[in-house]
Amino acid sequence: MSFGDPNNPYGQQQGQQPGYGHPQQSPQGVPPQQGYGYPAAPAYGGGYPGAPMEMPGGVKAARVMLWVIAGLQVIGLALLVLGLAAVQKLKDDPSLKADSNFDAVTKFGTGMIYALIVLAILFLAGAIWGAIQCGKGGSGARVGLIVLSSLTIVFSLYPWFPLSLIHLVLAILVLVFVAKSDGAAWFKRPRV
């Protein structure tokens, strides 16, 4: 007896006898497909259960922007180190050592440059951490990225606005892309 094409969703399933209303188990232990027509489409963004979810484009863009911010931090860090070397060289100038005002200014300037170097290293480490966490996910990583972006926006606005315009724009975009609903779904997805 022929059962027809086994791939035809409208045809009679193999393993079923005519007249019986209940499905039988196939030899592999999987019940045959119920109903007619094509199988149900997967949910948007999630795919089939257990299938890996693809990183949304906004999160990919945020990851690239975080790497750009890290690169800009490296450049800024190099400029700060060069500035520190220049201040140290001016401190050693014998004609300026006699001026007490210059000594006070260089002490304050040196301390300020050291503080800026520490701040630049912290933001560099934060940008690298954030870029790495974009691939791993986790709701804590998302919150950390939102906080990092917010702090970058604040520090880009106040003391060095014209110089930090690129940082400001990139931090705003990272904040928006991570906070969007597809970014939230990416960071809240179950990880294997």
Would you kindly provide a written description of the structure presented here, covering whatever features stand out?
The chain is rod-shaped. The chain has 6 helices and no strands. The chain has a domain of 131 residues. Helix content is 61%, strand content 0%. Helix 1 packs antiparallel against helix 5 and helix 3 packs antiparallel against helix 4. This is Integral membrane protein. Keywords: Membrane, Transmembrane, Transmembrane helix.
**Main sheet?**
none
User: Approximately what portion of the residues adopt beta-strand conformation?
Assistant: under 5%
Structure annotation, total helices:
6
Helix-strand category? mainly alpha
Order of helices and strands: HHHHHH
Strand segment count: 0
Distance between the termini: 46 Å
Oligomer: single chain
Helix content: 55-70%
Radius of gyration: 30 Å
- Using the alpha-carbon principal axes, give the shape: rod-shaped
Can you tell me the residue ranges where pLDDT is under 50 for at least 5 consecutive residues?
none
Average predicted confidence as pLDDT: 78
